[in-house]
Amino acid sequence: MRWEEWKPFYLDIVDRLGLDIQADRMATTLLTNLLENIDSEPLLRNLKELVAGRTVIVCGAGPSLERHLEIITESKEFNNAVYVAADGAISAFVNLGLHCDIIVTDLDGRMEHIREAIEQGTLAIVHAHGDNMETVRASVSSLGKILGSTQVEPTDNVFLWGGFTDGDRACYIIAQNAPRRIVLAGMDFGTTVGKWSKPNHERKFHASKRKRIKLQIAEELLTHLMSSSRIEYHVLS
Which of 33, 128, 153, 176 lies 20 to 30 Å from 77, alpha-carbon distance? Predict the structure, then answer.
């Protein structure tokens, strides 16, 4: 996605959440430097090859995730689907013994599960923003060959796909790699947050005011994506 295309959406988010634009840019510079020795082209090709022409199931970390994964894994319709985990959703895959093809994360989820998935061949797309610079600095160098993403101006090796939360950003990334269909699982936009969303939660919990705003933004961005795309979308209920 071109920065000029994404910029109006981003500036609206900045106003609604009081984001620090310069901190987001600093985070992008940090991630760019950390990934300077990784050739992103083979990883981008791998992403395209995984997604193009396929049914892709993008899994958010909402309260419905376990139920949706049960429905999906029991249906022959999804036998050859590609699985994408949005950040903390990767813990559901690990705990249920399921393979995940792609993870889109700002490193908010359980790092041991993120590392385990990467070691088992999951393609990781790591997002940098103003609030996670310390985690990016501490973790990225040990994650191996990963792709980087940003929500401000992209660089040669940190890419702008659009989207804001891990779940809707995952959908934007997939949509730009020619899938046949995108199925949304565990994508809940109410007032309850799934237990997979953050480490150290044993059960779902009530969303804070700021989290509710983020979920609203995610829903708006997904609505825009689906209405402006020719890709087939299916939202599991």
Answer: 176
